[in-house]
């Protein structure tokens, strides 16, 4: 079972309310949109992976939306 200290993630985001918004948005990207995790998955649930990404400073309020966008190359094809 994964152990996640939420306080570390709260310190990175600023408050618990924003943490819920950012972590749920990132977990949804991982679970249903096929986005690649930026930390080891280790057979954890998407919410745990999202919290670990936040704790490590890889995901925050400013970049969570950008991480979920489809990147297109110069010819308009999704990468």
UniProtKB/TrEMBL annotation:
This protein's GO CC annotations: DNA-directed RNA polymerase complex
Alphabetical list of HAMAP family matching this protein: RNApol_bact_RpoZ
InterPro entries registered for this protein in UniProt: DNA-dir_RNA_pol_omega, Pol_omega/Rpo6/RPB6, RPB6/omega-like_sf
The EC number(s) this enzyme carries: 2.7.7.6
Catalytic activity of the protein: RNA(n) + a ribonucleoside 5'-triphosphate = RNA(n+1) + diphosphate
UniProt xrefs under Gene3D superfamilies: 3.90.940.10
Native source organism of the sequence: Pleionea litopenaei
One Gene Ontology molecular-function label: DNA binding
Subunit field text: The RNAP catalytic core consists of 2 alpha, 1 beta, 1 beta' and 1 omega subunit. When a sigma factor is associated with the core the holoenzyme is formed, which can initiate transcription.
GO biological process, one term: DNA-templated transcription
Keyword flag Nucleotidyltransferase: yes
Swiss-Prot/TrEMBL keywords: DNA-directed RNA polymerase, Nucleotidyltransferase, Transcription, Transferase
Name listed for the protein in its UniProt record: DNA-directed RNA polymerase subunit omega
Function: Promotes RNA polymerase assembly. Latches the N- and C-terminal regions of the beta' subunit thereby facilitating its interaction with the beta and alpha subunits.
Family classification: Belongs to the RNA polymerase subunit omega family.
């Amino acid at each position: 079972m994964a152990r996640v200290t939420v306080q570390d993630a709260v310190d990175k985001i600023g408050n618990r309310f924003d943490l819920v918004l950012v972590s749920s948005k990132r977990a949804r990207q991982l679970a249903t949109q096929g986005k690649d995790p930026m930390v080891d998955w280790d057979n954890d649930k998407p919410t745990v992976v999202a919290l670990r990404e936040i704790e490590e400073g890889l995901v925050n309020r400013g970049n969570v939306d950008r991480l979920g966008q489809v990147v297109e190359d110069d010819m308009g094809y999704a990468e």
